[in-house]
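Before the break, one more example. Copy the sequence into your notebook; we will annotate it together after we see the structure.
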Amino acid sequence: QVQLVESGGGLVQAGGSLGLSCAASGRAFSMYTMGWFRQAPGKEREFVAGISWRGNSAAYANSVEGRFTISRDSAKNTVYLQMNSLKFEDTAVYYCAADTEPFFTTSEAMRIEYDYWGQGTQVTVSS
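Here is what the structure looks like once it is written out:
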């Protein structure tokens, strides 16, 4: 069992930056693939980024590639999402997720059915 708590959301102007954190508690955080997802009003939840359990492999949605960076600190049981050059369309509730399934390609990362989810944190980008 893994419990996930996101933090760091807020209001930012377009072009600005924001960093999200996801603190994990429970067993063996370092064994889990971690992901970030988001859901905008009226839209389906979508994959944003994923990072392997070792932290040596990352995957990104095309819409955030080059602007967002996912990382993890296993000593702190925390995964991060650094968001730069934010756009109005990045406005959403952001969720972190954990699963034991590994990935080797971006398409695999996007298809993982994550078992554990946080409660979400709101990110609002003003235009």
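Helices lie at 106-111. The CA atoms of residues 23 and 47 lie 19 Å apart. Try to locate both features in your own notes.
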